[in-house]
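Exercise 7. Given the encoded structure of a 152-residue chain, write a plausible sequence.
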């Protein structure tokens, strides 16, 4: 969405004033070869696990299901497993992120229109240049059995 770079700061400013806490979800989706699904947005640099904000009136799992379908064309066919919960207060005061492992899914067409620049699969030991440090840490924690760090 071409207005995203303008609207995102406005949304964050409003959210800070109206909400004590915001909540986001990210999905660690792997394929049969053990590769990890990552996306690159049009409005921010870096590679991320697909996900986004939990909207009023939806559960975290519903938000995950919606975001995976929108951003990556991943339709969950089973329940995702909650892996970890992180505070993101350094970048966005009051923000928290849940990481889910998505193992039961099927491919479909993404429903987003212009938000995602690229969708790709990567071996965990060959993540792309530009993967965000937090994304790299969450993948390592999940796949290497490391204890999750409480901060994003």
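Solution.
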């Amino acid at each position: 969405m071409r207005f995203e770079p303008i609207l995102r700061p406005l949304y964050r400013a409003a959210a800070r004033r109206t909400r004590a806490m915001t909540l986001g979800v990210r999905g660690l989706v792997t394929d049969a070869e053990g590769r990890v699904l990552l996306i690159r947005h049009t409005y921010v640099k870096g590679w991320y696990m697909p996900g986004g904000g939990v909207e009023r009136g939806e559960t975290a799992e519903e938000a995950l299901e919606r975001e995976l379908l929108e951003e990556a064309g991943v339709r969950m066919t089973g329940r995702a497993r909650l892996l970890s919960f992180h505070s993101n207060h350094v970048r966005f005061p009051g923000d928290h992120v849940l990481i889910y492992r998505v193992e039961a899914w099927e491919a479909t067409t993404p429903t987003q229109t212009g938000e995602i620049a690229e969708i790709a699969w990567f071996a965990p030991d060959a993540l792309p240049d530009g993967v965000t440090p937090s994304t790299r840490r969450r993948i390592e924690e999940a796949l290497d059995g490391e204890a999750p760090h409480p901060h994003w």
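Remark. The two ends are 26 Å apart (CA to CA). Students should compare their own answers with the one above.
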